Amino acid sequence: DALDPHVFVIFGATGDLAKRKLFPGLYRLSRSGILPGEFRIIGSGRHSPGTDEEFRDRLAESVRKFVDDFDDESWERFAARISFRTSSKDDGTELAEAVRAAQKELGDRTKKLLYLSVPPSTMEPMVGMLGETGLAENARLILEKPFGSDLSTSRSLNAALHEVFGEEQLFRIDHFLGKESVQNILALRFANGLFEPVWNRHHIAYVQIDVPEEIGIEGRAAFMESTGTFRDMISTHLFQLLGFLALEPPVRLSAESLRTEKRKLFQAVRPLDPSRVVFGQYSGYRQETDVADDSEVETFVALEVWVDNWRWKGVPFLLRTGKSMGQSRRTITLGFSEPPLRMFDHAEHFDGAPNELVFELTEDPKLTIDLRAKRPGPALELDHAQLELRFSEAFADAEPLEAYERLLLDVLRDDRTLFTSAEEVERLWELCDPVLREPPRAQPYARGSWGPEDAAGLPGPRGWRVPES
Ligand code: BG6
């Protein structure tokens, strides 16, 4: 029961994710009364940030920055339950003691929820520590991606996890799946009779999943240097988006059915072809603090994916993402086939562009359908016109949850519909394997641009579809 008292343990509590998302998310959930009435949060990491008081003060500063309607009173109530204990892969005694003490204080029904937000290389030994100290017992564990760094490390991580935890205790998080607008892909496809009949190779000519980001590495040099954009974004977030777009209709909206369909889908995805992958690195990256002078790490990736099944055979899926690019967007574009007959070719305003269905997965999500319509006037001239659905307007009184809030809530409810399985993660690494073995050289691109030139040609003559924002 979600209302049972909880002890939350956040590993990586002084890290970037904890500061930007986890503590702000927990604070907002507690303020809206969604967290259990009784809880303790124990932050953990290798180095102590000082006294508990100092840790809370530091957190207050960042939560204030990332939560618009921060207020001191509710923060004080929330923060009173936060403390910090050091732990490392070699030693978790002090932390385990603190967790036991908190459990005792909150009573027999108290549950444990552990959040592992640590670099991929420390994840496996940390799991060992959780087993040795007993912290793993009856606990749920949330893991932050990337899950390993290739097929063999992810297998070994999964094996290590399964020595200590049952799969039913594990929640592998991909926060893109917590975004309201991503869940809307499922709603649009399976709650409407309008789209699914045309959702296939007979009607869709191309799909683009485009996630350019304006931000650079923002103090995350160590992470970027060891992970790179391919592992950070493609093998995780962008493939998960592809999964939701391309899977077959699940028999019901349950974790099990979705997993079954995602598994089938990723089985049908062709392992990536390195010659259809472009890596880029923004100019000035090597001069960033803590980046190697000769770093070859990619900060940009564009690639082509093929899904070899009856629904999608022959439809190119183009994926692109990068740091320090011209705009921050999360756009999914589905381009439809041309009508069989061109009756209106003579029209002046008409450039022959096909219909497109566009999801904008931003903070202000919208769905647009680009149509051809007759331009009012004496001639039968065609022009583009748009049907637009802005979710913030259509559902003005709704209160959207931020992705991490949503997913934390799902863990509390034991609902794993939006989480990924061990098998799925391994399959994704298998698909990525050819690129990891033979990574293309990262080509330079200017900050604020759309990436290296070679990436521009990848989608063919129509190029990357970047709708006006
Ligand atoms: C994270 C990546 O998982 O997602 C970051 O590690 C990336 O590199 C971020 O910037 C993007 O998430 P969002 O929710 O801001 O689009």
TrEMBL record:
Catalyzed reaction equations: D-glucose 6-phosphate + NADP(+) = 6-phospho-D-glucono-1,5-lactone + NADPH + H(+)
Residues in the signal sequence: none
Sites where the protein binds substrate: 175, 179, 213, 232, 323
Coiled-coil parts of chain: none
GO cellular component: cytosol
Binding site for NADP(+): 12-19, 46, 145
This protein's name: Glucose-6-phosphate 1-dehydrogenase
Source organism: Amycolatopsis antarctica
